[in-house]
Amino acid sequence: MKITSFYRISINPGFAFPVFEHEGMAYCQEGKGDKVTGFSPVNIEGSIIIKAKPEQEFSVSIGDELIYAFQLTNREIVFGTKEQIIPFIRSEIPKFKRMPFMRSEMAEFIGDEKEAEIANMECDKILEDCRKKSEKTS
Q1: Contact present, 30 and 40 (Cβ < 8 Å)
Q2: Whole-prediction pTM
Q3: For residues 60 and 36, is the Cβ–Cβ distance under 8 A?
Q4: Where are the beta strands (DSSP E) in the chain?
Q5: Above 70 in pLDDT, residue 138?
Q6: What is the pLDDT of residues 46-95, one digit of tens each?
Q7: Are 18 and 79 in contact (CB under 8 A)?
Q8: Closest Cα to residue 62, out of 81, 82, 38?
């Protein structure tokens, strides 16, 4: 199936889902391990969709490696297999110093346990501060 766009749950930077198209229908990839095991139809109406550029459109088949995607702050999408995208994600982590939740997700994706632990501690502090503020207003 051919990648035609990328789905995001927000306009903020972060991981995106590749959207595949076949006979006018949208699909997402299913996988086990890092391999594509199938494709499931998805409804993308009303969703935040970033169209793939012509040079980004390529086909993926069952048995190929899963495709991962990341949206930058300028809405550009970088994507590829996990092996292809890990160096990019690693280089982007410092840009997310003030976004520990995103940094945690990125660090876990690339397998950087130390960075994930640091980011998770920052996330815990933010959540604890929110709980304290909430208790004061209750």
Answers
A1: yes
A2: 0.85
A3: yes
A4: 2-8, 14-22, 25-32, 35-41, 48-51, 68-71, 77-80
A5: no
A6: 888 888 888 877 889 999 999 999 998 777 899 999 999 999 999 999 99
A7: yes
A8: 38
Distance CA 18, CA 49 (A): 10
Paired tokens of 66: 């899963």
User: From CA 6, how far away is CA 135, in angstroms rounded?
Assistant: 39
* Angle (deg, nearest 10), helices 82-92 and 100-110: 140
pLDDT band at 3 (very low <50, low <70, confident <90, very high): very high
Domain range annotation of the chain: 1-80, 83-138
Residue of 15, 14, 29 whose CA lies nearest to 66: 29
